[in-house]
Amino acid sequence: MKTSVMGLVLLALVCTSCQTASGTGALAVGALGAGVGAAVGGTKGAFIGGALGLIAGGAIGHEIDRQRQDAARTAWRENRVVVREVTEDEATYRVKATPEAGTTRVTTTVTKWNPSTQAWEQVSSQTQTVQ
């Protein structure tokens, strides 16, 4: 069981390079759910925990991706910094879109509120061309 949990943790670390927040969220939270499920309920628990984590992580990541794209379009169209907040499962994420002057490029940064440090911590940053 120790090997399977370590494998799942490794999978989560490798998968954090996914292109979208929904992909990263689904894989990372799915792996975490599988690890917790394996620790509690063996193989069946790993499957159930992984499936539930996959669904929850994908849903949170999808909303962050949607807010990131919408904020980037708004920032480029209105030529101003746009900030959006997403709250899911007692976690608050902030999406900030900053347009580059004179271009169609916008940098979006996602941060997550950490209640223990009372500070925003960067989760990801991405520069994209808005069409």
What's a quick, concise take on this entry?
The protein has 131 residues and is an alpha+beta fold. The chain folds into two domains: 2-62, no CATH class; 66-129.
Could you explain the architecture of this structure?
- This protein has about 130 residues and is an alpha+beta fold.
- The protein folds into 2 domains: about 1-60, no CATH class; about 65-130.
- Helix content is about 55%, strand content about 30%.
- The protein has 2 helices and 4 strands; from the N terminus they run ααββββ.
- A hairpin with a 2-residue loop joins β1 (about 80-90) and β2.
- The termini are far apart.
- Mean pLDDT is about 75; it is low at about 1-20.
Tally of contiguous helical segments: 2
Residue fraction in strands: 25-35%
How many domain modules? 2
Backbone structural class? alpha+beta
Instruction: Output the strand order for the largest sheet.
Output: 1-2-3-4
Order of helices and strands: HHEEEE
End-to-end C-alpha gap? 48 Å
User: What percent of the residues sit in helical stretches (DSSP H or I)?
Assistant: 40-55%
Ordered list of secondary-structure elements with their pairings:
Layout: H1 2-14, H2 21-78, E1 82-88, E2 91-99, E3 105-114, E4 119-129
Antiparallel strand pairs: 1-2, 2-3, 3-4
Helix pairs in contact: 1-2
